[in-house]
Amino acid sequence: MFEIVFFGTSASAPSIQRGLSSQAVLAGEYRFLIDCGEGTQRQILRSGIGFKRLNRILLTHAHLDHILGLGGLVSTFARWESIETLDIYGSRTTLDRVHALLYNVVLGYERLPVQINLLELKPGLILETKEFTVSAFPVTHRGSGSFGFIFQERQRRPFLVEQAAALGVPAGPERGRLVAGDSITLDDGRVITPDMVLGEATNGATLVYIGDIGRLDNVRQYVEGADTLVIESTFLDQDAETAARFGHITARQAAELAREMGVRSLILTHVSRRYREAQVIEEAHSVFPDTFVARDLDHYSIRRGKLAEKLTREDTRARNIAPTSEE
């Protein structure tokens, strides 16, 4: 399961209700910040997740509404020393701009207690754990060096409790070893292999995140079959020509992509203040009913084979995500 928390959902400029682009993906003990528009650090605190373990930042592209909040966030990290290392991923174009922002403006005079690593993105695998992978893929937007991201849980084989009990496998660490792929030997000398107590492999949850984008035909392979697709919806269909001119898409186009690629849930973000939210929802729902329009501080869980589930603040507290007094 993945979770995504939206910090800013506006396009280009903030509105009264919406801040600039930023969101966090939570995956077990890992946390990833995707983009960091102006005002992000305050939204992180308001969301209740705090700063701890938020030490990997994935940047979709170099436009200021997606990176300008890095200055304040990194300055806070540098003073509070709440993390030892900060990995910032982006295209070469994006990292050049981030370097100028951080070292020519924010941190030029400071001796940093945090190690900042600027890591150039290439298409393919970014991070691999026992539970999931994170990959990047190229996206077409204005200029060069835009990326989208895929969070993919690994395949899992369910443990067949009744079958294990029938074979005499005791509850405890022996079952854990079988789940991990190791064979065990029982007291009577019988060898039990994982295949004897594990079911057929099933795919885990898939979350695809795409920021600003102006062309959809070259990302279809990355979106296909996703449990949840998060993507921009800066314009409505009535302004499709303007959208294309500025390298963006419409809510209808996003919904058509989700429908055609067999996506289970669609979450729209990067909403322009020129439209009412109800207009965006109406246009998307006319094509793809399982669409949500994200608001600032919305929190969703992403599970395999299920619609995205919007969580309440009480759900967040129940997951022990709320910050400690030290944060």
- The radius of gyration computed from the alpha-carbon positions, rounded to a whole number of angstroms, is 22 Å
Order of helices and strands: EEEHEHHEHEEEEHHEEEHEHHEHEEEH
**CATH superfamily of the largest domain, please?**
Ribonuclease Z/Hydroxyacylglutathione hydrolase-like
CATH class of the largest domain: Alpha Beta
Low-confidence stretches: 322-327
**DSSP strand content:** 25-35%
Number of helices: 11
State the major sheet. Answer: 8 strands, mixed
What is the name of the CATH architecture of the largest domain?
4-Layer Sandwich
**Helix content range of the residues, please?**
25-40%
Structural class from helices and strands? alpha/beta
Examine the coordinates and then state which fold CATH places here, giving the name of the CATH topology of the largest domain.
Answer: Metallo-beta-lactamase, Chain A
Mean pLDDT: 91
How are strands sequenced across the largest beta sheet?
A: 6-5-4-3-2-1-16-17
The count of β-strands is 17
* Principal-axes shape call: globular
Count of separate structural domains:
2
Quote the distance from N terminus to C terminus: 25 Å
Based on the model shown, name its key terms.
single chain, 327 residues, alpha/beta, Metallo-beta-lactamase, Chain A, eight-stranded mixed sheet, 11 helices, 26% helix, globular, disordered C terminus
